[in-house]
């Protein structure tokens, strides 16, 4: 029937369908952009609009997201909302399309296993007896094969400012995760999962796996930690009670996992599938099957759309964006020629690092590659983002590099840039 006769009163929340005037049911995901917009006109609540967006295939197509969003904001009387969104996206895209330049480099003793940022630390003022300010230029660096020492580096200085030492005689870590007050890591030899309080240096044994631990994740609040292992299990740890909360079986080894920003769901990937579980009862609420059996190394929830999207990538040499509520593949970010080890999801861009020695920056809403940075001489294992507009990368070549995006190329430190000229971003 005529899409102008579609009404929100016929919306079936369970089956995600719209019923036309002719009693014909149309799935949300099969609506074209015009029909979707006409349906939107009858929806009275923003939550209904956003829910419909997340399952509409047309919304996921490159280039159409901005057009639909602008029209909807204007029609709903939210022109300022649409304008602000486009201005923020325009600034982000324009900045990350500038040639990247090395701002500083730190030489490490061993291969870099993981970076964490931001790591805010209060600087103490001895005259007033109070904290002077919070330094947000700090990066925590974890090296491989050198014990459990955590290096804290101010990226504006040439040398590390502090080393957080682990227990003497301790083994190296096989995986770890950190938030501003805690670090959770796995012992490389006996598969123990250990919590260390950074402010006191006290360590607590949470439990252990039956085989080598391959991944660890922690939530921002420091209340939950997630670990994956060769023993075909994913385990959730309660960091307040220092015990295991859930033990979830998976079909194969899990190499990557993530905790939802709200702490309500967790996710982990194998070489066959990406699974999402509820935290309070361990029930699987989403399962996405991969097109080919390639191990997933990186799993991240979208912090800007935390209740909808999740990203995963690894040996398939790309990052895939999923709607884990509907199980649909939304977008693919391709271009790497090696294993994708890590990714960072920002407001408008996606940053990835790979075994092909490069870092790629994508437009998150279209999938276009804005820039490729030939960052290191060996595998780029990890990357993090520092505000405003800084990327920090760690590699097997034993270096950590900070990348700026200046308006002009001001020196010989500029990286080799192989940008792809994608579509221009226009402020509506």
UniProtKB/TrEMBL annotation:
In the record, what terms sit under GO molecular function?
Answer: RNA polymerase II general transcription initiation factor activity
Fetch the InterPro entries from UniProt: F-box-like_dom_sf (IPR036047), WD40/YVTN_repeat-like_dom_sf (IPR015943), WD40_PAC1 (IPR020472), WD40_repeat_CS (IPR019775), WD40_repeat_dom_sf (IPR036322), WD40_rpt (IPR001680)
Its Gene Ontology cellular component terms are:
transcription factor TFIID complex
Q: Does the keyword Nucleotide-binding apply?
A: no
WD repeat ranges are 206-240, 289-332, 391-404
The UniProt entry's GO biological process terms, in alphabetical order, are: transcription initiation at RNA polymerase II promoter
Q: Does the keyword ATP-binding apply?
A: no
Specify the signal sequence span: none
* Pfam families according to UniProt: WD40 (PF00400)
Q: Which UniProt keywords apply?
A: Repeat, WD repeat
Q: What's the protein name? A: Uncharacterized protein
Please tell me the species this chain comes from.
Amorphochlora amoebiformis
């Amino acid at each position: 029937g005529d899409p102008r006769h579609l009404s929100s009163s016929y919306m079936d929340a369970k089956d995600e369908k719209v019923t036309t005037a002719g009693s014909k049911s149309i799935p949300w995901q099969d609506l074209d952009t015009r029909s979707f917009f006409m349906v939107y006109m009858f929806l009275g609540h923003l939550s209904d609009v956003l829910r419909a967006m997340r399952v509409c295939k047309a919304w996921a197509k490159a280039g159409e997201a901005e057009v639909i969003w602008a029209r909807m904001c204007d029609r709903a009387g939210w022109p300022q909302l649409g304008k602000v969104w486009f201005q923020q996206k325009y600034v982000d895209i324009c900045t990350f399309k500038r040639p990247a330049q090395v701002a500083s480099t730190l030489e490490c003793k061993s291969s870099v296993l993981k970076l964490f940022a931001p790591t805010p630390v209060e600087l103490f003022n001895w005259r007033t007896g109070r904290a002077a300010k919070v330094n947000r230029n700090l990066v925590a660096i974890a090296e491989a094969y050198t014990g459990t020492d955590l290096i804290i580096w101010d990226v504006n200085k040439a040398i590390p400012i502090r080393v957080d030492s682990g227990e003497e005689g301790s083994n190296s870590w096989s995986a770890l995760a950190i938030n501003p007050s805690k670090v959770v890591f796995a012992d490389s030899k006996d598969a123990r999962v250990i919590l260390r309080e950074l402010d006191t240096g006290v360590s607590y044994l949470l439990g252990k796996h039956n085989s080598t631990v391959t991944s660890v994740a922690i939530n921002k609040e420091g209340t939950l930690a997630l670990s994956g292992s060769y023993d075909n299990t994913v385990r959730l740890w309660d960091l307040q009670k220092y015990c295991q909360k859930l033990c979830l079986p998976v079909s194969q080894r899990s190499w990557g996992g993530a905790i939802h920003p709200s702490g309500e769901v967790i996710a982990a990937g194998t070489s066959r599938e990406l699974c999402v579980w509820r935290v309070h009862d361990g029930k699987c609420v989403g399962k996405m099957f991969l097109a080919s059996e390639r191990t997933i190394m990186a799993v991240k929830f979208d912090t800007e759309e935390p209740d909808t999207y999740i990203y995963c990538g690894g040996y398939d040499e790309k990052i895939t964006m999923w709607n884990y509520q509907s199980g649909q593949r939304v977008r693919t970010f391709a271009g790497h020629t090696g294993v994708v080890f890590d990714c960072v999801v920002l407001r408008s861009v996606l940053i990835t690092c790979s075994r092909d020695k490069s870092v790629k920056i994508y437009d998150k809403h279209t999938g276009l590659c804005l820039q490729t940075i030939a960052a290191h001489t060996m595998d780029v294992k990890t990357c993090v983002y520092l505000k405003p507009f800084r990327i920090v990368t760690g590699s097997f070549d034993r270096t950590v590099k900070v990348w700026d995006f200046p308006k002009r190329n001001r020196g010989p430190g500029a990286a080799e840039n192989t940008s792809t000229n994608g579509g221009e971003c226009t402020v509506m």
